[in-house]
Amino acid sequence: MKKPDYHILVCNSYRVSGDAQGYCNKNGAAELIPYIMEECADRGLDVTVSSTGCLNVCSQGPVMVIHPNNEWYGKVDSEDVVDEILDAIEEGEPCEKYLISE
Q1: What is the sign of the dihedral through the CA atoms of 52, 53, 55 and 58?
Q2: pTM here?
Q3: How far from the centroid of its chain's Cα atoms is residue 97's Cα?
Q4: Nearest to residue 73, comparing CAs of 83, 62, 88?
Q5: Which residue, 39, 41, 54, 80, has fewest beta-carbon neighbours within 10 Å?
Q6: Model confidence pLDDT, tens digit, residues 27-55
Q7: Rounded CA separation 61/24 (Å)
Q8: Buried b (16+ CB within 10 A) or exposed e, 41-55
Q9: Residue-range definition of the domain harbouring residue 51
Q10: Which stretch of DSSP H or E encloses residue 36?
Q11: Would you state the pLDDT for residue 53?
Q12: CATH no. for residue 24?
């Protein structure tokens, strides 16, 4: 298997019980996943996108993590925010405006 250049994790607030009930899910994270996938394909980015359980930073949600960069982004609540983050990936820099990790 060829590994992708990037792995984008999108918090969808799943709990151990399997129910999505947290902040990220209630604030549109699930609806952004198809957009992220389509936008990455349109840009020619080699990316895998995964929905995750709770990432435990609800105060910053919706949250998106990009590996291998280990960049954690908060307040990812619209297509415009996703576009800014993907623009930064293409430029090889973190998107400081939404970065919540140091």
Answers
A1: positive
A2: 0.90
A3: 14
A4: 62
A5: 80
A6: 889 899 999 999 999 999 999 999 998 89
A7: 5
A8: eeeebebebebbebb
A9: 6-91
A10: helix 29-43
A11: 87
A12: 3.40.30.10
